[in-house]
Amino acid sequence: MLTDTHIKQEVQSATSDYFVLNDNGAVFPSVLWDAGKATVRGKIISIGSRLKKQRLIKQLELETEIKRLEREHKQSRKEEVLKKLKEARLKLDEALTYKAEGAFRFTDRKYYEMGNKASRLLAFQFRKAQASRIIPRIRHPDINQIETCDVPGKETRTQNAGYNQQSLFTKSINRKSVRSVR
Questions:
Q1: What is the pLDDT of residue 47?
Q2: Sign of the CA dihedral with 163 first, then 166, 170, and 176 last
Q3: In the sheet that 158-160 helps form, which strands lie side by side, from edge to edge?
Q4: Diameter of the chain measured on Cα atoms
Q5: Do 141 and 168 meet the contact criterion of CB atoms below 8 Å apart?
Q6: What is the pTM assigned to this prediction?
Q7: Which of 44, 57, 76, 77 is the most buried (most CB within 10 A)?
Q8: Backbone angles phi, psi at 27, to 5 degrees
Q9: Selection from 39, 86, 21 nearest residue 78 by Cα
Q10: What is the pLDDT of residues 62-120, one digit of tens each?
């Protein structure tokens, strides 16, 4: 859009008009600059919107002209009507090609920006797959105790079958350490 000289001149004139009107010395330069950037952004958005509307109007006009020429050619079978019909179809094809090229440019930019980074969807799928591989509970072989493991985002809980958890845990560690010392 900014490669077009008319659009570039329009943005430059809007920018210079803004700074001429607002640079009176009473406004801090940083505020003036930030507001100037917002003004340029708004001008570019308005120009883009105007151009999009113009392209849409042109496309609709071409479609109605094609329909009219098709009806006329169907009734008359004249070569000059067929030639006009082909020209109108070519213009419509060019307009739609421009639209498709814009979609491709947007898609290419989006994929370039994402690169090798995992998007939200991939990160969600990875977390879901990772959570399915977590072992939620472990039964202790020597005592009647079920220990629930740490699951990200959940509290750790211990279900004890009538025993004091701390004393059992300490006793089991002490027994293992005594066996390993012998």
A1: 94
A2: positive
A3: 137-139, 145-148, 158-160
A4: 109
A5: no
A6: 0.54
A7: 44
A8: -105, 140
A9: 86
A10: 999 999 999 999 999 899 999 999 999 999 999 999 888 888 887 877 666 666 565 66
